[in-house]
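Morning. Coffee machine broken again, so started the prediction first thing and wrote up yesterday's gels while waiting. Chain of 224 residues, entered below exactly as on the submission form.
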Amino acid sequence: MAKRRKIKINSDNEEIKDSSSVTQSEPQDNPAEETLVSEVEEPFSEEESIPSSQSEEYEEIQEKSLTKEELLRKELEEVKALAAENRESFLRARADYENLKKRTEQQLSNSISIGKRVVIEKLLDVLDNFERALNVDESKADVKNILIGVRMIYKQLKGVLEEEGVKVVPTVGNIFDPRFHEAIESVVSDKYKDEEIIEESLKGYIYKDTVIRPAKVKVSRVPM
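Came back before lunch.
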């Protein structure tokens, strides 16, 4: 806040005296002299206006502000570095996954090809036997011998499928199961249990635990 000082100004403008330098004991030369007293505001410095304790507190706040800014800048740099590191790790992991996926698909494809080759090799023997049966001299062959040859080939082919894990779906005498059977007809009868399979129209096959083809059957219904 500005300091106010009183200045005595003579009416004839010849002399201006500072009221602070005049004591009460000095006589006045001219009692009739008109004096004008004016208040003059003197400028003050920032050092005079702010006490030393407040100045120190201000400097301390500035230091704390700079320190906090430096810490935030440091934390930001650390976060950026961590983000870049995580991105690199993600890209490496994704590349490893893609490579693993390709290798797995290739291995699966190779395994399927090998499995098919094994089955085909076994079926070639069956094909050879069919060709031998067809090359029999018709003039010398009789139906009985042809039938025997066909049965042998059927047995051989069935053995090949069983070795690979293919099984026939049980039908006649079993209760209808929609997981393995497909009902193409229902017959009302009191001779069988309700939903008992009484006839097989087409064989069904299971490969391990997977149904390749459901068996088509006729099912019994108990009369109401």
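Helices lie at 46-49, 52-134, 143-163. Going to sketch it on the whiteboard this afternoon.
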